[in-house]
């Protein structure tokens, strides 16, 4: 076990140096990690699209939409962990950082092994039926979804550790781990999807096996590093290895609203996918949604989520260090970075959509037209979502995790689903009606996130475990 006295010091430039440098120092590795990690999903879709067909693409997209409803809720613990870790790192309290991360790990183990795996396996057929999947799509999706539910603990631990290190000010270690994970995942997927030598072609299922196997491998390595020391976060023999319900309560206090937010948003996505599935040529429409929205639009959401994570860490650390004005400036800077990147990526959607779509094996004329149409809407929507996520990071990083919940319910559930239902009730629902609903939902989320953050009620949020002076700003 490591020596607690060998702790690597926190990067104080995040709370003391130039604000643009502080945001960018955490943002660029996180954005790059998200893009590299997301690229493995693109590879899966390209491989499956070419070797299985668009039915396989639809199966992966539908499965991920369902899986995310559950996984985002569990990952909410990591949001609660991030709030605590950032605040304690800003206050330069390494003991509380380590205790918080360990309790998040312990809680995650219990939830995944005792709840998610068994229930997810049994409920998968029913969940696929809810989103109007055709029999051929469901046949490809069921083994994929069950594999993800049962064997995803390694991937979850990777997410947890990345969030912990980033909140503590180290974004480069998660980047290195993410690169290793992606290379391993792509290698396994290429082998397992198409087969190699004596290894049979697993098709769509091969993508799931590659994902969980890569996550397990990297997480085993990461856990040995946590025990061995040398990282800004570490587990050591002098820790309390049993449950600490004071910390666990704080994890749920700050994380549960984010979990409910994630569930609401992804349930909204599932029902939106149901509207897509009700369209004429539903298989092509779902495949267009998966390729254009779930995959290509992800290049914007990956970078924006990286901005959100960096913003949360910088905001929380500066509030923990007693610098609330610096927190407010950091969020504005982060939103500026996000807008530049979203505009650059969105321009590709407008000018070379066919080039982007060609790699996914899209040959069907209707599918190509639907995909290009959706990309035009998403080029605009990306500007809104990046602003929304930057300010969401500011709110969550400072401990206000309830406001993003309410904002998401309004903007990502009520507005888009309400519009789709209205269009459907008034006449035949068209694909463009759904695409417009997506854009208006993102616009609403951006406006509300900015307004709520500017009210600055987050300045008065106190984060403490009850055994020292509160670390509020």
Fraction of residues in helices? over 70%
Low-confidence stretches: 1-6, 468-473
SS element count, helices: 16
* Silhouette: globular
Q: Which structural category fits the helices and strands?
A: mainly alpha
Largest sheet composition: none
Q: What number of domains? A: 1
User: What fraction strand?
Assistant: under 5%
Rounded mean pLDDT score: 86
Radius of gyration: 22 Å
Distance between the termini: 35 Å
Number of E-state strands: 0
N-to-C series of helices and strands: HHHHHHHHHHHHHHHH
In short:
This protein is mostly helical.
Task: Characterize the structure shown.
This protein has one domain. 80% of the residues lie in helices and 0% in strands. The protein is built from 16 helices and no strands.
What are its keywords?
single chain, 473 residues, mainly alpha, 16 helices, globular, disordered N terminus, disordered C terminus
């Amino acid at each position: 076990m490591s020596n607690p006295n060998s702790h690597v010091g926190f990067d104080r430039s995040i709370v003391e140096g130039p604000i643009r440098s502080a945001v960018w120092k955490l943002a660029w590795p996180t954005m790059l990690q998200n893009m590299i990690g997301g690229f493995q999903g693109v590879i899966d879709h390209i491989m499956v699209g070419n070797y299985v067909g668009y039915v396989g693409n639809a199966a992966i997209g539908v499965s991920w939409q369902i899986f995310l409803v559950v996984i985002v809720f569990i990952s909410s613990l990591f949001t609660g962990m991030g709030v605590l870790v950032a605040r304690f790192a800003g206050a330069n309290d390494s003991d509380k950082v380590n205790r918080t991360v360990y309790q998040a790990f312990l809680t995650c183990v219990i939830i995944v092994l005792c709840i998610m795996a068994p229930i997810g396996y049994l409920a998968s057929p029913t969940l696929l039926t809810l989103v109007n999947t055709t029999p051929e799509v469901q046949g490809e999706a069921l083994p994929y979804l069950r594999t993800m539910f049962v064997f995803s603990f390694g991937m979850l631990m990777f997410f947890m550790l990345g969030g912990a290190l980033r909140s503590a000010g180290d974004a480069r270690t998660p980047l290195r781990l993410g690169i290793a994970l992606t290379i391993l995942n792509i290698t396994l997927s290429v082998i397992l999807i198409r087969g190699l030598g004596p290894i049979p072609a697993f098709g769509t299922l091969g993508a799931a096996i590659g994902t969980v196997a890569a996550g397990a491998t990297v997480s085993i390595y990461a856990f040995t590093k946590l025990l061995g020391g040398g990282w800004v976060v570490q587990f050591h023999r002098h820790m309390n290895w049993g449950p600490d319900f004071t910390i666990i309560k704080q994890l749920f206090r700050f994380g549960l609203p984010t979990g409910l937010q994630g569930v609401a948003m992804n349930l909204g996505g599932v029902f939106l996918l149901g509207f897509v599935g009700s369209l004429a040529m539903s298989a092509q429409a779902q495949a267009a949604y998966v390729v254009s929205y779930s995959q290509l639009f992800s290049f914007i959401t990956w970078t924006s989520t990286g901005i959100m994570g960096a913003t949360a860490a910088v905001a929380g650390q500066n509030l923990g260090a007693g610098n609330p004005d610096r927190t407010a400036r950091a969020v504005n800077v982060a939103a500026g970075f996000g807008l530049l990147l979203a505009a650059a990526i969105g321009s590709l959607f407008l000018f070379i959509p066919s080039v982007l779509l060609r790699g996914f094996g899209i040959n069907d004329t209707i599918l190509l037209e639907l995909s290009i149409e959706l990309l035009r809407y998403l080029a605009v929507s990306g500007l809104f979502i990046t602003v929304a996520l930057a300010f969401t990071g500011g709110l969550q990083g400072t401990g206000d995790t309830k406001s993003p919940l309410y904002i998401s319910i309004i903007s990502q559930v009520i507005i888009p689903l309400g519009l789709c239902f209205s269009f459907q009730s008034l006449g035949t629902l068209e694909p463009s009606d759904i695409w417009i609903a997506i854009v208006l939902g993102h616009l609403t989320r951006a406006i509300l996130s900015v307004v709520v953050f500017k009210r600055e009620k987050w300045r008065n949020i106190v984060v403490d475990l009850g055994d020292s002076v509160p670390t509020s700003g």
